[in-house]
Amino acid sequence: QVQLVESGGRLVQAGGSLRLSCAASGRTLRTYAMGWFRRPPGKEREFVAVITWSGAVYYRDSVKGRFTISRDNAKNTVDLQMSSLSSEDAAVYYCAASGIAHLDGTYYYNEVKYDYWGQGTQVTVSS
């Protein structure tokens, strides 16, 4: 069993930056693909970014160049560095872990491919 706990969400001004962190316990994440998803107000949860066990990264188009996902296997953490935030980035952000190894990173765009989820952390962007 893997427990995931997100942190770092807060109120930030438009154009600002924020770093989210996801800490895992119960099992090493070394062999897991780790993803970040978000649920904007009134919308469905959507894929944001994923980093595979090999370190390959994939992003949704709207965050490319602004968000960076990284992992520290020694600390069992995965981070999401976000910059140039806008109101469209406001959401509850979730960390997720997938134990399935797949060569095509787009495989992880679908939330059903994930085995474990955190409770989420709220990111609010003020204009």
If you had to describe this structure to a student in words, what would you say it looks like?
Helices cover 0% and strands 47% of the residues. By secondary structure, it is mostly beta strands. Strands 2, 4, 5, 6, 9, 10 and 11 form a seven-stranded mixed β-sheet that branches. The protein is globular, with a radius of gyration of 13 Å. The termini are far apart.
Q: Assign the structural class, choosing from mainly alpha, mainly beta, alpha/beta, alpha+beta, or little secondary structure.
A: mainly beta
Q: What is the number of E strands?
A: 11
Supply Rg. 13 Å
Mass-distribution shape: globular
Mean pLDDT comes to 96
Count up the helices.
Answer: 0
Main β-sheet, in a few words? 7 strands, mixed
Distance N to C terminus: 40 Å
Strand content: over 45%
Helices and strands, in order, run as: EEEEEEEEEEE
- Percentage of residues assigned to helices: under 10%
Spans of at least 5 consecutive residues whose pLDDT stays below 50 are none
Q: In a nutshell, what does this entry contain?
A:
With 127 residues, the protein is mostly beta strands. Helices cover 0% and strands 47% of the residues.
